Amino acid sequence: MNWQIQQILRNRRMAEKGSIPQGSGGSLSICLVYPHYYSTAMSSLGFQSVYRLFNEQPGVVCERAFLPDSRELVLYKKTGETLVSLENERPLSDFDVVAFSVSFEPDFINIPVILRLSRIPVLAIERDESYPLILAGGAACFINPEPAADFFDIIAVGEGESLIPLISDFIVGHLDSHRQKLLQAASFLPGIYVPSIPLSTPVVKASAPKDSLPSSSVVITENTEFGNMYLIEVSRGCPRGCRFCAAGFVWQPFRQQQLDVLKDECRKGLTHRSTIGLVGAAVSDYRWLEELCSFIVEEGGIPSPSSLRVDRLTPRLLDILVKSGHKTISLAPEGGSQRMRDMIRKNLTEEQILDAAESVARAGILNLRLYFIIGLPGETEQDLQELVRLVSEVQKRVVEQARTHKRLGEITLSVNPFIPKPFTPLQWAAFCPIDELKRKVAMLEKELRPISNVRLKVEDIHGCLLQALLSRGGRELNPVILKMSEGVNLRKAAKACNIDPFNLVTSKLPLEALLPWDVILATERDRLVAEYRSAMEIIGVNI
Length: 543
Fold this sequence. Notes:
By secondary structure, this protein is α/β, with parallel strands linked by helices. The chain has a domain at 3-204: Rossmann fold, CATH 3.40.50.280. It has helices at residues 3-15, 38-41, 45-56, 70-79, 110-117, 139-143, 160-173, 179-186, 259-269, 289-298, 315-323, 338-343, 350-362, 381-405, 434-448, 461-472, 478-485, 490-496, 501-506, 525-538, and strands spanning 28-34, 60-66, 97-101, 133-137, 154-156, 192-193, 203-204, 229-233, 235-236, 255-256, 275-279, 302-305, 328-334, 367-374, 411-417, 454-458, 520-521. Helix 15 links the parallel strand 15 (411-417) and strand 16 (454-458). The longest helix has 25 residues, at 381-405. It is globular, with a radius of gyration of 24 Å. The protein starts with a helix and ends in a 5-residue tail after the last helix.
C-alpha cells in the first residue's frame, strides 16, 4: 500500500485514545463508514456510539473508514489504491458488511465516491454475492432515505440501541444464506427497510429502550471539530415541537438521562478532557442542567452546553457559565418577527429575547450568536424589518451592559434559509426561490450594516437548495446523486437527468400527495396536518 496513505492512517491511530482493539476474531466483520472527513466523523456522537454498539455484539468485529480528504483523495487516485479501514488497513471489499452512518442528506453524494474507491459497485442491483452487504442508518436514513435508497441492500430505520443488536444477530445467523434469501428474511424485521423489496406497509421507526445509557465519546482525539471536549448526550428529542424541526417529531418521546448516570459519565470524561460537551436537541430543557453543570465545575471541569433556550437562562446557570470561562453564548430566536415566531411555534416573545440578551451581557458574556431563519412561509419584508429592529434592540442592551464591564463584544447573526423537512408540520411548505433568498439577504446586509458590533453570517444558499432537494426528493434523484458524486454541480447534474430541482423544492405539496418518505412511519400524520393548518392560519392561508 502507498506509504503516504499508510502514514496518514498511522498518525490518526497514534493520536487516538479509546479506540477498540481489533483482532481477526469474530464471525462477522463490519466496516462502519462515515461518508465525510475523519475530523467531522469523529465529532459525531452518533457515529461513535454505533462503533461501540457494533463491537459490543457477540461475534462482531467492527472497524472504521471515512471519506478521504482532498489530500488523501489525490493519493488514492494517483496510486489506484483501494479504500481501507483505519484499524487494520483492510480493503472495504474484504468485509462481510459495509455500514454507512449518515447524519446529513448532502453526505449521500459521498457514498458513491466511497464505494467506487472500494471497488464495490454503487448500485445494489449490480452487486452479487462476492461483495459485502451494504447497510445504512443514521438520522438522514430514517427521515428520508429514498434519494439514496438504490445504493443500499438494507436500511436501518431508527435508533441504534434497538437496531444494532437485532441486525447483528440476524446477519450472523444468515451469513451462509443466499443474498436474496437474506434480504427477504430481513424485510420482516422491525425497523428494517429493504429498498429492493416492495413494501406492503410503512416501516415503523425503532426507538431506543427506555433504560439505554447515554451516548458519550468512545474515541478521544484532538483531530476533530470538538477535539478539546468529552461529549455526553444528556437527552434525546425535544418537547417543544417547533414546526420546522424534526427533533420534536421524529425523536419521540423526549427522554432525559438520570442525573447520577450523567455524573458518573462526567467523572469518566474528566479523566480525558477538562471540558464536558453536553449534547442534545434540547439541552436547556434537561431538568437537572444546573445541577449537572455545577457538578462538573466542582469536579474541576468546564461544562459546555450545545444549545440554550432563551426562556431557560437562569441567573444560576449564567453564573456557572461565566465562572467556567464562557465568552460566547448562542441563542435561537429563529423568527425575526413575532408573527414568524408564532407561525413556527417558537413560543418566544420579543421581551423574552431582549431580557435574555441583557442578562447574558450583564453576567459578563458579551459575545452573542443569534440564530434566525429566513424564507419561512408567508414571510414579508415587514417581517425582515422586524428582525433588523430586534437585532438593533439587542445590540443596544448589550452595549449598555458592555459599558459596565468596560469592554465590547460582538453579536453574530447566523442566518439560515428555511428547509422543509420530512415528518414536520412544514413538510408540505415550499423552499423559498433562490432569487428571492438572495434579495432577502441583500436587504439584511444593507439594513444591518449601520449597526455597530454586528456581524452577519449566511449559510450557503445553493447548499441549502441541495439539502432541501435531498430532504424532500425520492428515487428520481438517484441519477443526480451519481452525477454529482463525479464532481458535476447540481444544476448540470439535474439538467443531464432531465430534472428541475428548483420546481421540486419551491412548490408547495398538497396534503393528499404521496410523499417519498411515506415508506417510513415515524410520527402521527393527523398531528402534522393539524399543526400545518394552524401555522398557515397565522399567515392567512387556508388549507
